[in-house]
Request: fold
Amino acid sequence: MELGIYGLGRMGANMTTRLLRDGHRVVASNRSPGPVDEAAAEGAVPAYTIEEMVSKLEVSPKIVWLMVPSGQVTDDALNHVMSLLQPGDIIIDGGNSNWHDTQRRAQKVAAAGMHMMDCGTSGGIWGLKVGYSLMIGGEKEIFDHCEPIFKSLAPENGYGYMGTHGAGHFVKMVHNGVEYGMLQAYGEGFEILEKSGFGLDMREVTRVWQNGSVVRSWLLDLAALAFAEDPTLENIKGYVQDSGEGRWTVQAAIDEDVPAPVITLSLLQRFVSRQDESFSAKVIAALRNQFGGHAVKLESGEFGGVKHEA
Reply:
């Protein structure tokens, strides 16, 4: 098949390569020219503007895959592409868009006589080698038309039609929420091991857990790689970002009256990781000192504090 891809970041570039290797004609475009040159070296048709990308698509209906950050960036790219396409053409949003935004955009696209698919895309930097997990929403007949593209990007049984507009991004959102909880559990478990006093080699622990254990997973395989590169992780600061999907999952759980304590706490722990010092912890320490005379750690590093009369 033929499609244009706009957005050649870590995932978009690898997706372009994977599609080219499976025989698709890809017109590759990006805001900056460097990634376009790299895609052209892989065999893509280069396009240095959105206008050029759309003009170089030769097959009708034209298909444009957006692989850009969520939010206003996606809106801007979508509006630009819509201004250049014709009724019947297809836009696929493969980014991590909020499903509410997706539903709003799908209505706008449909009003213009075009079609939109939302494709939750998981796989990260490993997707080029092992394929991407694709969770797809939109019109079923458009899914069927675009299926050869999804089949090339995904491993066997790694893609599927989730339902109407927004369903793909909703499923991907919850996928990432589950991921938050799994990552937190592994992180806590390895910290308990590291603090145990046994002098455990995390590389050996992960090797054993990878074989026959009920907690074996791809994330554990990645932990093994991380410990192989840096056995004590001394070169990594414990600062954990979030890209939004965990927050959206927690909000969906609240809206649906679903208790989701693990996912919620894993999100809050990411906030904790970003604090060099917590003011709330200072308050708790001060209150313990006030009501019980418990020692507090002073800025000097020593323990002390005011002793209070009962």
